[in-house]
């Protein structure tokens, strides 16, 4: 018998470049956290699971069933599943083999659109199969897995080719049992087919930040509402929540197995920006990306721990408006060899983005935002010369100002802060700004967005002049115009021909991000 390991994340599992993994796990937990279920049950690999001892609960997507000795499941990529104990006495022991079909199998056997995908273990494009094994079948499966394990333990090309051969033998054997059994969930066949196709599209387009429910539904020739209902029914959660989990799971793998920077991971996972990545990652995992990388790699440099501590302290300092302490932390960060770009993204902007979210949710108010902005602006002045040398890359460039005849700037300053927190370079023209000054700045500084603010009804008309000046200068088709302020409305925006009206600072920043992408 293959040696047992006591938990699903044990270091006793065998790997060969993560292409094939084999383990035996006891599932004692009656209930797992969202992240534990995520990290152990969803991915791009195919997984073969056999209950070899005990009994428990097996949850597949939104469906839970009791499992017992002999239950064999083959789970396709993107299908979330997990095992649980019934109570402290009754728990399942599961033999698991995970592999990447694209990297391990050949030609049609690695093509999920082919009926011979994984040697025919799946039916009718449904990414899950089931068979109940007898004692003889369990022995046959475990013997093949023991030989597979022996080859994986010797990390060489020759042994890996032998392991591949045993994996193919395992799949052929399993396919024979599957063909003799009734497939699981027959009433869900059509629904599973549609959801399975959607899941494959999600994995194929994971790096596409513009992927939406509508675009996936369109590629499958089904309506947006129909796919949304099917996802909720079959997967057990909304489409967007599932996509978020897939992206964070991919980020976890990249943090664990590569040395990619956070910026590179954001691009690979289709996330909007660094602050969004930090926020979503911490929401799901309970830790920062840096801390997760350290937790997964015991050889990670202790300097990395110091770096994370300094950046976290700087972020907390900004959130609490501690101006004097922020200067000391910035100097400490620079002296520690942390790049100015990383200090800005992972320290100042990460903290400012948290403040922005809390402001949007009415958890903090204007004084807190302004206090955080003082820390942000002070930090930017210190980092400016370093950022120039490092050629800091911004998402886009915006010029902003309060229009001619209006001297109010609190709203304009809030918008500027929120835009900076999203990684935009913002040129502040101040107050009482003439229409032509907006246009000249946009041309000279190559801005993608002009943002106009007004608090008085008597100055709103200047916004129309800005739009007309943009037309006269020939930049109306290339530069977007955002407007906002207490008296400004959506109807007024349409009337003057501006691109977007936003009622608050957070939505203004989000709109600018969309225009700059």
Keywords:
8-stranded antiparallel beta sheet; 51% helix; 20 helices; 517 residues; alpha/beta
Describe this structure in words.
- With 517 residues, the protein is an alpha/beta fold.
- It is built from 20 helices and 13 strands.
- It has helices spanning 34-41, 101-104, 135-153, 157-179, 189-204, 213-219, 224-234, 239-257, 262-268, 274-285, 289-296, 302-319, 323-335, 340-360, 366-390, 410-421, 435-444, 461-472, 490-496, 505-516; strands at 14-15, 20-26, 46-60, 63-68, 71-75, 81-84, 92-99, 128-132, 397-402, 425-428, 449-453, 480-484, 500-501.
- Strands 1, 2, 3, 4, 5, 6, 7 and 8 form an 8-stranded antiparallel β-sheet that branches. The protein has a 5-stranded parallel β-sheet with strand order 10-9-11-12-13, sandwiched between helices.
- Strand 11 (449-453), helix 18 and strand 12 (480-484) form a beta-alpha-beta unit.
- Helix 3 (135-153) runs antiparallel to helix 4.
- The termini are far apart.
Question: Strands, helices and their partners?
Answer:
Elements: E1 14-15, E2 20-26, H1 34-41, E3 46-60, E4 63-68, E5 71-75, E6 81-84, E7 92-99, H2 101-104, E8 128-132, H3 135-153, H4 157-179, H5 189-204, H6 213-219, H7 224-234, H8 239-257, H9 262-268, H10 274-285, H11 289-296, H12 302-319, H13 323-335, H14 340-360, H15 366-390, E9 397-402, H16 410-421, E10 425-428, H17 435-444, E11 449-453, H18 461-472, E12 480-484, H19 490-496, E13 500-501, H20 505-516
Helix pairs in contact: 3-4, 5-7, 6-7, 8-10, 8-11, 10-14, 12-13, 12-14, 13-15, 14-15, 14-16, 16-20, 17-18
């Amino acid at each position: 018998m293959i040696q047992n390991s006591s938990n699903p994340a044990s270091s006793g599992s065998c790997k060969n470049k993560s292409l094939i993994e084999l383990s035996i796990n006891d599932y004692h937990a009656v209930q797992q956290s969202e992240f534990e279920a995520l990290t152990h049950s969803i991915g791009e690999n195919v997984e073969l699971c056999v209950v070899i001892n005990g009994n428990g609960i097996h949850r597949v997507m939104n469906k839970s069933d009791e499992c017992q000795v002999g239950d064999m499941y083959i789970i396709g990529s993107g299908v979330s599943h997990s095992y649980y104990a019934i109570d402290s006495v009754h728990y399942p022991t599961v033999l698991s083999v995970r592999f990447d079909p694209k990297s391990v199998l050949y030609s049609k056997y690695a093509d999920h659109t082919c009926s011979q995908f994984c040697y025919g273990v799946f039916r009718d494009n449904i990414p899950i199969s089931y068979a109940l094994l007898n004692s003889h079948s369990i022995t046959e499966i475990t013997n093949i897995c023991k030989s597979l394990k022996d080859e994986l333990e010797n990390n060489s090309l020759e042994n890996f080719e032998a392991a591949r051969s045993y994996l193919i033998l395992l799949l052929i054997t399993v396919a024979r049992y599957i063909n003799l059994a009734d497939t699981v969930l027959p009433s869900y066949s059509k629904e599973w087919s549609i959801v399975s196709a959607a899941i494959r599209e999600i994995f194929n387009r994971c790096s596409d930040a513009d992927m939406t429910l509508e675009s996936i539904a369109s590629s499958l020739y089904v309506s947006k509402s129909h796919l949304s209902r099917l996802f909720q029914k079959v997967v057990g959660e909304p489409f967007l929540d599932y996509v978020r989990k897939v992206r964070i799971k991919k980020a976890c793998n990249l943090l664990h197995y590569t040395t990619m920077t956070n910026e590179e991971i954001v691009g690979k996972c289709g996330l909007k920006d660094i602050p969004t990545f930090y926020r979503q990652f911490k929401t799901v995992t309970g830790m920062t990306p840096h801390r997760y990388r350290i937790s997964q790699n015991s050889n990670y440099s202790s300097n990395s721990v110091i770096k994370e501590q300094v950046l976290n302290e700087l972020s907390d300092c900004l959130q609490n408006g501690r101006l004097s302490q922020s200067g000391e932390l910035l100097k400490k960060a620079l002296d520690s060899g942390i790049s100015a770009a990383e200090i800005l993204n992972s320290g100042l902007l990460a903290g400012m983005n948290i403040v922005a979210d809390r402001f949007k949710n009415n958890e903090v108010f204007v004084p807190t935002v302004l206090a955080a902005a003082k820390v942000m602006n002070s930090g930017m002045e210190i980092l400016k010369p370093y950022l120039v040398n490092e050629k800091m890359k911004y998402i886009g460039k915006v010029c902003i100002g309060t229009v001619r005849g209006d001297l109010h700037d609190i709203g304009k300053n809030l918008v500027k802060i929120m835009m900076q927190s999203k990684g935009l370079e913002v040129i502040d023209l101040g107050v009482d700004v003439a229409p032509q000054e907006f246009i000249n700045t946009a041309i000279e500084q190559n801005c993608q967005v002009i943002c106009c603010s007004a608090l008085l009804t008597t100055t709103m008309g200047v916004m129309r002049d800005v739009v007309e000046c943009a037309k006269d200068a020939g930049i109306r088709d290339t530069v977007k115009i955002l407007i906002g302020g207490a008296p400004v409305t959506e109807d007024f925006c349409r009337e003057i021909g501006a691109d977007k009206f936003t009622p608050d600072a957070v939505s203004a920043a989000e709109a600018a991000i969309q225009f700059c992408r």
